[in-house]
Amino acid sequence: MIRCVSCGAEYDDDEVIYTCEKCGSVLELVSDIDVSKDIFEGRKDTLWKFKECIPVDESKIVSLNEGGTPFCKCDKLGEELGVNLYVKVEGSNPTGSFKDRGMTVGMTKAMELGVSTVGCASTGNTSASLAAYAARAGLRCIVFLPSGKVALGKLAQAMFHGAEVMSINGNFDEALEAMTALALEKHLYLLNSINPYRLEGQKTIGYEILRDLNWEAPDRIILPVGNAGNISAIWKGVSEFYNAGFVKDLPMMTGIQAEGACPVTNAFRKGDKRVVPVENPETIATAIRIGAPVSDIKALNAIYDSNGYSETVSDEEILDAQKLLARTEGIGVEPASAASIAGLKKLVDQGVIDKGETITCVVTGHLLKDPNTAIDACTKPTEVDADIDTLRKLLME
Ligand code: F0G
After folding, report:
1. Where exactly are the structural domains of the chain?
2. How far is the CA of 37 from the centre of ligand 1 (A)?
3. What CATH topology corresponds to 71-96+198-376?
């Protein structure tokens, strides 16, 4: 069953519907978990090991073996910050971001519904993922990208997998509004995270974190927030497993935004339940360059209900954290993902995070998504002939 998170109106699972027809709010799938957690054991480590908890038709699954991502204990960085730190590396998914979790479920629903065309607006990763899954499913794929603001790797993926790519003269929020209007006119099936099936895939990040910690909850999950779907999804996942009795505690959901694109943090600071859109969002972390997040209600609920927190970080703090994680722990992430590490550092400094807390930072996309930003942050390689004497001298300097 699909249910409106605001007025509780109910809709059939197979209705193609993105927002509540009665009040206009966002929707979610209602799932009851009536299995034992033991059934997940011994299964192949993809998100489909949780198939009983994902409300789609198993015979229609479109998958690239997503999920089951690395869960790295980061002792060096953790010690530096005084916390017990684990990093969930979502860049290890098939197209290099967590979006694949949402897309395998969303595309499976698309097959169930028998649609022929899928579409999304994207800051990059959603389009890369959708293009790959549409190719695997054999569907037509249309993506709208904000012109000049999509990192190179993501653009290459969307184009290479054969999506019809439109470079929109406008920002992500404007591109999404246009894409949504076309979906409502039934030209295509919308696979942005306003589609509640997307979040059914992404909630498995929450499932896996609890499983990875041997069925215990971390004190806190920290992640970047853009369109606000992922924090909502992870909260749904951990809440479902908590309600099923698989764990005894719930984590504090902690959402980090870029200073130039921080409607959710602004709302959190005022104690509001809705955001006031930021008109011209700007940040080097182009993945989260979003001013009007569609899942703001769900995200703020997740933060309030979990006794969580929201904070902003500057572009400089993001780039510093990106380098710190890469050079201390060997984990390469794109700028938006590093916002979680930058946020952790800031909240430890501010005393919001207590020493010794067990923290899971979700790093959402791979370093190679945005090669330009990575190269710009480094000194150029030294050009040198393949002459051993010269090279030895250089090494001894
Ligand atoms: N991190 C990365 C790498 C992302 O690509 C995104 C969102 C987020 C974090 C934020 O997640 O929107 O669920 O709050 N990227 C979308 C896209 C908007 O189009 O690829 P969110």
Report:
1. 1-30, 71-96+198-376, 98-196
2. 29
3. Rossmann fold (3.40.50)
Output the pTM of the full model.
Answer: 0.98
* Number of the ligand 1 atom closest to the C-alpha atom of 193: 13
Same CATH fold, 98-196 and 71-96+198-376? yes
Whose CA is closest to atom 12 on ligand 1? 227
The rounded Å distance from CA 288 to ligand 1 centre is: 6
pLDDT at 358: 98
Burial of 244 from C-beta contacts in 10 A (0-12 / 13-18 / 19+): middle
Q: Which residues contact 226 (CB under 8 A, 6 or more apart)?
A: 123, 257, 261, 287, 288, 289, 290, 293, 336
Q: Which atom of ligand 1 is nearest to the CA of 97?
A: 3
d(CA 161, CA 158): 6
396 φ/ψ angles, rounded to the nearest 5 degrees: -85, -10
39 Cα–ligand 1 center, Å: 31
**Cα 195 to ligand 1 centroid, rounded to whole Å:** 14
Q: Hey, what are 370's tokens?
A: 């945005």
222-253 residue pLDDT tens: 999 999 999 999 999 999 999 999 999 999 99
In CATH, which of 3.40.50.1100, 3.20.20.140, 3.40.50.1820, 3.30.450.20 is domain 98-196?
A: 3.40.50.1100
CA of 150 to the centre of ligand 1 (A): 12
pLDDT per residue as tens digits for the range 48-68 = 999 999 999 999 999 999 999
For 321, counting Cβ atoms within 10 Å of its Cβ (0-12 exposed, 13-18 middle, 19+ buried), the class is buried
**Ligand 1 probe mutation, 26, 144, 227, most atoms within 8 A of CB:** 227
What's residue 24's pLDDT?
96
Dist CA 250 CA 382 (whole Å): 50
Position 199 scores a pLDDT of 98
User: 382 vs 80, 204, 379, 391, 394, CA distance in Å?
Assistant: 31, 44, 9, 11, 10
> Residue 106, Cα to own-chain centre: how many angstroms?
15
Q: Write out pLDDT tens, residues 93-148.
A: 999 999 999 999 999 999 999 999 999 999 999 999 999 999 999 999 999 999 99
Using CB distances shorter than 6 Å, the residues near ligand 1 are 97, 99, 122-126, 193, 224-230, 287-288, 334, 336-337, 364-365
